Amino acid sequence: MNEDLTHHYREIIAGLGEDPDREGLRDTPKRAAKAMQFLTHGYHQTLEELVNGAVFSSDTDEMVLIKDIELYSLCEHHLLPFIGKCHIGYLPNGKVLGLSKFARIVDMYARRLQIQEELTRQIANAVQEATGARGVGVIIEARHMCMMMRGVEKQNSSMKTSVMLGAFREQQITRQEFLTLIHR
Predict the structure, then answer these.
(1) What's this model's pTM, rounded to 2 decimal places?
(2) Which residue of 48, 106, 131, 145 pairs with 80 in a disulfide if CB–CB is 3.0 to 4.6 A?
(3) pLDDT score, position 155
(4) Which residues are catalytic, by number?
(5) Which CATH architecture has domain 3-39?
């Protein structure tokens, strides 16, 4: 447990005008520090460790789509959550990636302080790097608590971002197939 984080959370609570020694808050600094370490554990992971050799030879050359991978991240501007789902498509080039690795890639980058636009790009680049695919498409749809709980307080707002690499960017028909499959 990071004692510095615990100390800083205690100071934040006191700075808000609360008594950090009050019964309900006594252990909150330690719990908050532990939660923040979990929510940002992606900083301690690498793509190589995460993939761990789970790239397999395959003759498959048609699109592979993994839909609705849930994600939870923290906005780097307000440290508030954004929650959504990620869709990943790729065109194998002699290799496929183990299915669970896609969710792990999403989590590794989501478990960092982020903006959704950069998260989308990081996931696409990681899938490209891990698979050597002919093309990769990533779309993220998320709801941002920084927009829902504060500021403009728009409860029904969401954000969609996309990154298209290789054939997904260069070939309209490939991009369209990806978008059609996502909405089925």
Answers:
(1) 0.94
(2) 145
(3) 82
(4) 75-78, 116, 144, 146
(5) Orthogonal Bundle (1.10)
